What we know:
heterodimer; A: alpha+beta; 2 domains; six-stranded antiparallel β-sheet; 12 helices; about 15% strand; B: mainly alpha; MetI-like fold
Amino acid sequence: MAMLDATLTDMVTRSFLRRRLIAFAVPLAVLAYLVYTAVAFDLAGLASRARMDNAAILMSDFVSHKVHVTRDNRNGQVTASVEGENKGAYPAGTFPDWVSASDAETVIDLGGGHVVTYDAAGGRYVVPGYGVIDIRPEANRLILTAPEPLPDWINASDTRVTVTTDAGRFTYTRSRVETFRYFAGWELFFFTLDSPFAGKGIGDLAALALWGDRVDPARPNIVAMVSDVWNNKMWRHGDVAWALFETVLMAFLGTMGAALVALPLGFAAARNFNPIVPLRGLIRRVFDFVRGVDGLIWTIILSRAFGPGPMTGSLAILLTDSGSFGKLFSEALENIDEKQVEGIRSTGANGLLRARFGVIPQVTPVLLSQVLYFLESNTRSATVIGAIVGGGIGLMLTQAIQTQKDWEEVAYYITLIVLMVMAMDSLSGWLRRKLIKGA
Amino acid sequence: MVEIIYGPRGGKRPDLTNGHEAYLEMVRRKRMYGGLLLLVFIALMASGWNLAASRNAGGFWNGIGNVFAFPSEVFAEAWEKRALIPGLVVEHVPALIETINIAAVATILGAAAAVVMSLLATRGLARWPRAVPLFRRAMDAMRAIPEIVIALVLIYILGGGPVPAVIAIAVHTAGALGKLFSEVAENADLKPVEGLQSVGANWTQRMWLGVIPQVAPNWLSYGLLRFEINVRASAILGFVGEGGIGYDLKIAMQWGQGRYDDVVAIFLLLFLAIVVIDRTSDHFRHRIVKGH
Lengths: 439, 292
């Protein structure tokens, strides 16, 4: 007895020691690994590479927009445009109400007492609490007159003067002079400037839509409004809606197609339905191969064959998921209750009928819930695959990011993607509850 | 029995005196609904594929013949240069290690965040019960943002390299694992927690000593499964963004003809790595959950 107790105590003590050791060793190992990767990923060099000014641009672009007022110094022409884009240009000769332009001079009121003036001699910027910044071009250089010493928000050289204040940004070069004024919110989200409805308040718009005179005699105002919003050149709402639909379509076609392909193959790979061992093994290896090769490689191969577009994306999802579904389905089929199959068999039914009435009703809830889970996650994958094969919202997003200036569009797309994925999540959750409770 | 099946519905009532007839009618009705659903589904699939094909650059029937053209071209060239492939495989191992490192670090960081968030989002365990919906919605949002979005935006700010990919995958992992972890934690036995509370343990101690030991095996298993998924995601992110084996693959593909031996070497490496990782993690998950 005493012997036993001694060995038991010994065992328990040793087990405790081992556990304590593991409790320290595992976090230490993880920490050591993280330190190694921090070195391997050059985390120290990241600080120098990080572009915080880019982050500032991105954040301000996410929530605000700017209007450019530009004068071409060679021909004296003054233009205004939203974000400096052609699509957002004010019609020639018209300006927002905070700009007053005559032949001789252009006065831009940036608000809060900040006033910029372009005239024949050059440009002036009045900054309250500081003074007047005056720039005149002379021969090949710019002459800057401003209260000394120059603060660090004025960046001056012989060829370029940049003034950045809270109210806006002013740049003078020999070829042109440009002023930015920032506004909160996304610009021209509903109507671009060439639409007759641009710049109107909600009340005006409602009045126009319901009882106002027709702006375009050919069609009712409400139709014109919807069409102007849908065809908005800046935001391309129509194209975006199509792209979202295309992404969901890719996920739907890919997932459902994979399920249809995998169902018969799943039967052929299940131990209780296919007695031929080599064939079963072969099909299982095919599943493993298809899954192992991975969606990325299939996507590349298929986009070579089918060209860019949503069908290529659907096929890529179909192919990858056939492997996963085949494995899952055959496992589900191996776990069925044989009694029901036997009951059907006793009525003299052949193999197909046994499968239809003995097996399918049993496995449907399991298979459906798996298919719906995949549909959910494939909505996300379709965004990424769209970026590779060139279709759907993934393509629009990568394009918007690559231009590196339309960050408000990036924010818009991200919001839409998140909403789309969440909507698909709740749809598939709802369907899952409906179908599986009913079955 | 039959009444329950039909419910209080208007119209012609089935003849309840004849159970056989009523049963047959129910079967007919069920079959009709099933058939209608099937028809709708077939119509959706057919029109969907048609639409997808019409918006594609090349049609389906043009493409189907080309499916094997590219692989056979690639393999023909690689076969000619087969002697070079082992060398090329070795050459790309560092890139593969980078891809795996990205996945591993992202899984560790994401899982750590998921542990905290899932406990805060589980009813009955949460530190601040009123904030449970808040943490749930936060996890939903993190799960909903595809990795590529975060990665591409971060590349603009942080420059290329593995760090944007790590952050992107980690955010998604935190959301996805958080949900699964929270589902496991919901089923944890509360008695140890109450016991710890009775001796004055604070929230962290209750979770660390009362909940985590119960749920650790399942959590580990989910974590390993996530690691498998993340290796694939990390390869894809490399292809779209920068870094790792995905980037090497993109470069080799862009070179095209003449570098197909490189492409095959990378395919081979990626395939082997994924199979080995899947098998290993499968093995460990079985051992963790089944306990042997």
